[in-house]
Fold:
Amino acid sequence: MTGGSPVTHCVSVVCEVGADQAMAFLSDGAKLGNWALGSLATEHIGNGIFRGRSIDSGETVFSRLIPDPDRGIIRYEVGTAPDQLSPWIWSIVQPCDRLGGSRRQTVITLIAWRPASMSDSGWEMLQREHEVEILIIKAQLEREAG
Structure:
């Protein structure tokens, strides 16, 4: 990491679904492969680990999802090997009624912490991917809700 360079990136969206539905969707490793551009077409390989493929690099990516429903947090441990996963992607599910809005709406936030080994171009790509992913999440959740 270089001094002064951003080490986090965050995107949010309001979805027309309840928090329970959003939490279940974002905690599902099979569904991860439908929206995470860095881990497409996921398949469970055992021990709670999913394997997918990055849309930009073509690399195989491994993920373990660790949901904390009481706090509305899903931690995504990610890496290029199942035994080298790092928790640098998180999502937060915030029911809008806690913010004075409707309980039928939820704010979903994706947060990424930049790994020290990530190049500037890789970090830029990840940020753009998250900006698209949050819109894909919204569209898929709202389509599922009907």
User: Anything to note?
Assistant: The longest strand covers residues 86-95. The radius of gyration is 15 Å. Helices lie at 19-26, 29-35, 120-145. The beta strands are 8-15, 40-46, 49-53, 60-68, 73-79, 86-95, 106-113.
